[in-house]
Amino acid sequence: MNSHDLTVGGYLVVLAAFVTLQIVGLRGKAPVPTLGTILSRIMRTRTGRVGILVAWAWIGLHFFAQ
User: Fold this and answer.
1) CA-to-CA distance for 56 and 1, rounded, in angstroms?
2) Residue closest to 36 by CA, chosen among 50, 18, 54
3) Is residue 48 domain-shared with residue 26, that is, in the same domain?
4) N or C: which end of the chain has fewer CB within 10 A?
5) Which of 6, 11, 2 has its CA nearest to residue 59?
6) How many of the other CB atoms lie within 10 Å of CB of 48?
7) Domains in the chain, number
8) Whole-angstrom Cα distance, residue 14 to residue 49?
9) Residue 20 · residue 12 · CB < 8 Å
10) Mean pLDDT by 10 residues, the chain (66 residues)
């Protein structure tokens, strides 16, 4: 196992955690907000919007640039 495999595995774990939290939030039994609720709270402020833009740019540079 090299470092690339470990990095991809880490990202898959984070993705699985997001999916799990989204499912738990949609069931409504636990006080876990959905991803849409979290993003709407973040996007209320200018700092939040800039943070989302920077995160989107970081993802684009690291995953889609060759």
Assistant:
1) 29
2) 18
3) no
4) C
5) 11
6) 14
7) 2
8) 22
9) no
10) 87 93 86 90 96 92 78
CA–CA separation, 28 and 65 (whole Å): 39
**pLDDT for res 47:** 96
Which structure tokens are listed for 20?
């799990």
- Give the residue carrying structure tokens 């989302």: 52
First to last CA, the chain: 23
Show the tokens assigned to 37.
């609720």
In this structure, are 12 and 27 located in the same domain? Answer: yes
Owning domain of residue 56: 39-66
CA contacts within 13 A on the Cβ side of 56: 6
2 residue type, one letter: N
